Amino acid sequence: PPHPRKSVRAMADNKAPPKDVIRILVSTDNHLGYLEKDPIRGEDSFRTFEEIFRIAKAAKVDLVLLGGDLFHENKPSRSTFFKAGEILRKHCLGDDPVHFEIVSDQSINFPDTACVNYENPNYNISLPIFSIHGNHDDPMGMGSFSALDLLGQHNLVNYFGKAHNINDIKLFPILMHKGSTKLALYGLGSVREERLHRTFQSKKVQWVRPLEDKDSYFNLFVLHQNRLRRNAFYKNSISESMLPAFLDFVVWGHEHECLIDPVESVQKRYFVTQPGSSIATSLSQGETVPKHVGILEIKGDQYRMIKKKLQTVRPFKMQDVVLSELNLDEEDVEEYLQAKVEEIIESVKKELGFEPEEDEEEDEDR
Asked: How far is it, in rounded angstroms, from Cα 347 to Cα 313?
């Protein structure tokens, strides 16, 4: 059925007063430390993560929202953890004021730190980061801690959305006010698909709404699960139709294909953006799509998504070759495939604006 309360509209191009607009940079699946020992690709994840924060600072966003899998390994190496902390300190500490306030019970939102990091008097935070965990950096072991817990204890990240009892989940929103705009931010870190599916089916996922003026809030939800766009129910994914109708906007992490442009959910209840990963970690067609982050602007019940293409991502191309259709001799196959790879590399060079290389014979003549 249609949204029972309000119709969320895309924000017009005319600029609303900045004091009433909440600007959020959204990014997911950064996979810091991926192939960190590779002499060529080892710095790729960090280079793009740095670019993401340069975009955030240039756009003067109010906060950064990360949708899980900040780290590639559940126990990131000391080198990866050091580099991540270095980037976060560089871009998140400072004297610039934070222009929104949190009015919900922070001891519930952030049970381990009891308050949002920018309100800690011992730290100067100019760019708050809010993050859930993914399936790569989920809590485990004694005490059920994750790498994000460590970043949270060092006041670099506001870690939220950890379900302590996955058989009975209660989601409390982080309530933010900026001028006349009110935002209710819900988050749920990665849970094994079959168990979360069973919890939804058992109606054991409870969404806590604001006690006052609940209809005046823009309801944003970030999760990290397999995405299923159809109405069908499969145990290894979460269907869009399983989420409640009062939501206005969903940031869907875990899926690596970049589908940053918001689309209506299958039942037209809310809008969904799938930022995708900021680094390719698998040989799949979805990883070849150009990678972006988004700047989500919210004013009242309106939103606008401004997509920003990432420039530091290593190019990744994929083509299918059906040898049975080429009628090649066996000894010619390798030569053909090598020429095909060279052709793809040259096409990438042209896209990136590289000058074509001159033949060696021409160089010798000169």
From this structure: 16
Q: Give the separation between CA 237 and CA 226, rounded to whole angstroms.
A: 5
The angle, 0 to 180 degrees and rounded to 10, between the axes of the packed helices 78-92 and 44-59 is 10
Query: Which residues does the annotation mark as catalytic?
Result: 136
* Residues 6+ positions from 310 with CB-CB distance below 8 Å: 48, 51, 52, 278, 291, 292, 293
For residue 114, give every residue at least 6 positions away whose Cβ sits within 8 Å of its Cβ, in sequence order, or none. Answer: 106, 107
pLDDT in tens, 108-149: 999 999 999 999 999 999 999 999 999 999 999 888 999 999
Tokens coding 91: 């871009």
Q: Are 219 and 3 in contact (CB under 8 A)?
A: no
Q: Is the distance from CB of 218 to CB of 185 less than 8 angstroms?
A: no
Token code pair at residue 338: 């090598």
pLDDT tens digit string along 177-234?
Answer: 999 999 999 999 999 999 999 999 999 999 999 999 999 999 999 999 998 755 555 7
pTM of the predicted protein model: 0.91
**Cα 72 off chain centre by:** 14
pLDDT number for residue 235: 78
Q: What is the Cα–Cα distance from 289 to 164, expressed in whole angstroms?
A: 35
